[in-house]
């Protein structure tokens, strides 16, 4: 047996027995808001392509043009000779759009959070205090680990609880950081950025906001919930979701970005984002500020789904955005529901522990402006038909 396979197989068996084993299943994008999986066309409600830009012709054309002109790879890391004018131009544009002095591109959102937060904590020193929403994304959790800090967790999206925790520790030495998402990837609810800004000001805490699911979708010109809000020290976001391509940014003061370019391993020791990706990002940044019509359609889709689900008796947690969870509880029941939906032409995956806390398995529906009204109607109709089936598996 190949070395360590006994160990790996035991863990896979353990996960299988708990209904938590995962596999990758290839799909082929097809139509607007759809995919073909195992030869069957499905409406896709699991993609984060919220504006339908991942298949927009302008992004594809510009990706191809950048590739033809500049090559398919940057060839080196940013500080060696991998920085192209296109990197610098996009960074300047993102900084302007987000209302910060400077911005920096990174290879992915996961890499950005893990590496940037880890770096900030490392330099903040051993007595740094990190206050984190209990439902923060895995990348932020790993950032805290890399920084060697055990976060003080506040109850999900409760600025009041954060205020208490900050006040209780007011006498402790050490720098303070607050880190949260502006739109929560799994619950689809929004953080109160103004309240967080006020708490950060009161406690002199560095405020770090992950805008992965808000970028492109919310805020003026789709620039997220932090754009134009005072008191946010670092806004992070991705190009991989509503912006239809790949990669991430962090935006903040010129000094912060210069510091990260000198200290952040996830920026320094990795090849620069490649020209075709830069082309797609550039085209997305041309389009996104003018996509208010698509953003309004997306919000209307989300309202219609929440209303339809409420009539069926489905708990959609605190969702107020394009992400609408249907809380199921049991992991096997969530899987059974996802299977039933797929059999009826709807792709919506079950999200299970460890991605979500125990007993909060759910189907996460991610809506898109690429969906039409008929797709939204079908989703609600199929959920009505399939919802009772989850009990049989529980
Ligand atoms: C809140 C949040 N932050 C960061 C990421 C990571 O972004 P990326 O997919 O670009 O690595 C995700 C993606 O799932 C996310 O949901």
* Pattern of helices and strands: HEEEHHHEHEHEHEHEEEHHHHEHEEEHH
Strand residue content: 15-25%
How many strand elements?
14
Average pLDDT, rounded to a whole number, is: 96
Poorly predicted tracts of residues: none
Distance between the termini: 36 Å
How many helical elements? 15
The number of distinct structural domains comes to 2
Spell out which ligands are present. pyridoxal-5'-phosphate
From the helix content, strand content and strand pairing, which structural class follows?
alpha/beta
Give the CATH class of the largest domain.
Answer: Alpha Beta
Task: Report on the biggest sheet.
Answer: 7 strands, mixed
The CATH topology of the largest domain is Aspartate Aminotransferase, domain 2
Name the CATH superfamily classification of the largest domain: Type I PLP-dependent aspartate aminotransferase-like (Major domain)
For the record, the CATH architecture of the largest domain stands as: 3-Layer(aba) Sandwich
Strand ordering within the main sheet? 4-10-9-8-7-5-6
Helicity, as a percent range: 40-55%
Overall form: globular
Radius of gyration: 21 Å
């Amino acid at each position: 047996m190949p070395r360590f396979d006994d160990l790996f197989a035991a863990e896979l068996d353990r996960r299988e027995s708990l209904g938590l084993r995962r596999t990758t299943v290839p799909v082929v994008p097809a139509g607007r808001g759809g995919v073909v999986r195992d030869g069957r066309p499905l409406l896709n409600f699991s993609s984060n392509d919220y504006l339908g830009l991942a298949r927009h012709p302008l992004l594809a054309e510009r990706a191809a043009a950048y590739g033809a002109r500049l090559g398919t790879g940057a060839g080196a890391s940013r500080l060696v000779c991998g920085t192209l004018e296109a990197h610098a131009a996009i960074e300047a544009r993102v900084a302007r759009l987000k209302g910060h002095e400077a911005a920096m591109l990174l290879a992915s959102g996961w890499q950005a959070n893990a590496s940037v937060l880890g770096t900030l904590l490392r330099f903040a020193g051993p007595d740094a205090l990190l206050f984190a929403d209990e439902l923060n994304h895995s990348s932020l959790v790993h950032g805290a680990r890399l920084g060697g800090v055990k976060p003080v967790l506040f109850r999900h999206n409760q600025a009041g609880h954060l205020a208490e925790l900050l006040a209780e520790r007011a006498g402790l030495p050490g720098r303070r950081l607050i880190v949260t998402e502006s739109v929560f990837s799994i619950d689809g609810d929004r953080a109160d950025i103004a309240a967080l800004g006020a708490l950060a000001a009161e406690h002199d805490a560095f405020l770090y906001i992950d805008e992965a699911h808000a970028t492109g979708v919310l805020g003026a010109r789709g620039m997220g919930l932090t754009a134009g809000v005072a008191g946010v020290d670092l806004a992070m976001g991705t190009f991989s979701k509503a912006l239809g391509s790949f990669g991430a940014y962090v935006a903040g003061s010129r000094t912060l970005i210069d510091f990260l370019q000198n200290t952040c391993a996830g920026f320094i020791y990795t090849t620069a984002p490649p020209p075709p990706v830069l082309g797609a990002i550039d085209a997305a940044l041309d389009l996104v500020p003018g996509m208010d019509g698509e953003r309004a359609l997306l919000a209307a889709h989300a309202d219609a789904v929440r209303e339809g689900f409420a009539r069926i008796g489905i708990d959609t947690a605190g969702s107020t955005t394009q992400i609408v969870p249907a809380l199921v509880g049991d992991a096997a029941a969530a899987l059974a529901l996802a299977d039933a939906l797929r059999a009826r032409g709807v792709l919506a995956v079950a999200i299970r522990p460890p991605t979500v806390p125990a007993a909060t398995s759910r189907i996460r529906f991610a809506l898109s402006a690429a969906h039409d009204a008929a797709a939204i109607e079908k989703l609600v109709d199929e959920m009505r038909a399939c919802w009772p089936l989850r009990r049989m598996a529980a």
